[in-house]
Write a structure and sequence with these properties.
six-stranded antiparallel beta sheet; rod-shaped; mainly beta; 11 strands; Immunoglobulin-like; three-stranded antiparallel beta sheet; 8% helix
């Protein structure tokens, strides 16, 4: 009898264990996930790269030689050999030559002789130019070409100092510019190479 009671009690306990309880059991769901965000920042240095030519040689085209007939003239000569009272050639009244200059000054612009690239706080750079002392004279002996009114150019911008837009650090996006100047030939008397001209370009972040 005791054996039967024990068996019945054991069966009741097993059945109770098998029955659902009032509480709940949460199983892990399939494809569970969680995520988080990370903020990324980068601090870039302020720097600039300047490209330029350290030597520039300007080769002027060779004008063709020509002969200009200034017309007729009658000269009065005394028996003592004095010639007077005549209309003589006057530099102010000479006929124009095909290659003659209107005056002794030539304005030139050297295109794309400098370039800048880099990073600045506002994406711009300042490019300036100056002619050091004695750098304005190109000489060959006593023959002198005077260089004046030297400016940097970028598109429609021109001046001793200009602001330009940067396009990053890649060389294929560098900002390019030129140099404009006047060359004065009033004291030029010789052909051949005249040397001594010098200008300095400075690029800085702003």
């Amino acid at each position: 009898m005791n054996m039967l009671k024990s068996m019945l009690l054991s069966s009741a306990i097993l059945a109770a264990i098998a029955l659902p309880m009032n509480g709940s059991v949460t199983l892990a769901a399939k494809n569970a996930s969680t995520s988080g965000e990370a903020k990324v920042s980068a601090t870039l240095p302020e720097f600039i790269i300047l490209h330029y030519y350290s030597t520039l040689e300007l080769n002027f085209d060779k004008p063709s030689s020509e002969t200009i007939d200034e017309g007729d003239n009658t000269m009065n000569v005394t028996w003592s050999g004095i010639v007077n009272g005549n209309d003589e050639l006057n530099p102010k009244n000479l006929r124009d030559a095909k290659t003659a200059l209107d005056n002794d000054r030539v304005k030139i612009t050297l295109p794309n002789v400098w370039a800048v690239r880099g990073f600045t706080p506002n994406g711009k750079a300042q490019v300036s130019i100056e002619v050091p002392k004695s750098g304005e004279k190109l000489k060959r002996g006593t023959s002198v070409i005077n260089m004046s009114n030297v400016k940097v150019t970028n598109g429609k911008r021109s001046g001793k100092s200009i602001k330009v837009d940067l396009k990053g650090i890649a060389k294929n996006r560098a900002t390019t510019g030129g140099v404009a100047m006047d060359l004065d030939f009033i004291k030029t008397t010789r052909s051949g190479k005249h040397t001594g001209g010098l200008y300095k370009i400075t690029a800085k972040t702003i």
